[in-house]
Amino acid sequence: MIRLNDLKISYRIGNRTIDAVDGVTLTIPDNCVVGIAGESGSGKSTLMKAIYGDIQSPMYLSRGSIDYGLKGADGKPLTTENVRKEWFKSISYVPQSSMNSLNPVIRIRDQFIDFPGTDSNKKRVLERARAYIGKLGLPPEAMDSYPHQLSGGMRQRVMIALATFFQPELIIADEPTTALDVVVQKEILMLLMELQEQMGNTILVVSHDMGVHYQVTHKMMIMYAGRVVEYGDTESVFADPQHAYTKMLIDSLPTIGDDSLRGVMASAAGAGGDRAYRVEPVLVEVKPNHFVAQPQNAGAAA
Ligand SMILES: Nc1ncnc2c1ncn2[C@@H]1O[C@H](COP(=O)(O)OP(=O)(O)OP(=O)(O)O)[C@@H](O)[C@H]1O
Q: What is the mean pLDDT of residues 98-116?
């Protein structure tokens, strides 16, 4: 179980500060797929990077903490400061446009040897990796290819193979299927979900595609302007969205820069619109396992 405690993550640009994630408190249970949706710039990637422990200037943790419920190899509890040591082993990250982040001048097999945590016996690593990519639907020859020789879908499978090789307890996938055609998107998502079922771990999936979320997630987290405005079991969130922004997201996918949503948010005070941001909203449980942002006096935090 991962607990986010009043997490505030900011960027310092000159003498200006952007609070990209602003006061997120919630619990992510073990063995589940959590979908994260929200408009562009709402803080999804920032929150994912913070959970991954990739907090580098100009980004910084300005408040709060994360309890991972995990211990490192040294037996100490993982925190945002030391979780980096457990990258790939306990926690891995499939970044946005990840299929383009494979090193273009290195063959796939060497990407397996190069990445942190592999044991020093290269032959053994390669044998395991070759067998593993086969299970993930890649031909063994893919190991000897350079990234540009593989299709986008194959490269994404390689990224997923790298991210899951050590069976980490937590995998963060930031828009794992963007830029793939719909058939390949579905295959990649099904692969991730199969692996999750086999490993019994937790996957956080960021996507703009509400259809994807509906199909593959157990829980949904909806972000707006740096805050989580709704969090609950996927079925409940889709069947009975509580927050004005969630309702709109389910009705229609917002496009980048669509200012009309902000207008609706501002007038949606009753459902926790912009008014809620001025009075520091907290997540209130409106139904079992279904939380929505409301002004503080309306109830307790999730
Ligand atoms: N490196 C950075 N330096 C300064 N500001 C940043 C940086 N990265 C993100 N931000 C700002 O933080 C806020 C949240 O950005 P973030 O990328 O987390 O949003 P997002 O919800 O993941 O968006 P998208 O869906 O477009 O990926 C935005 O206002 C963005 O401009």
A: 79
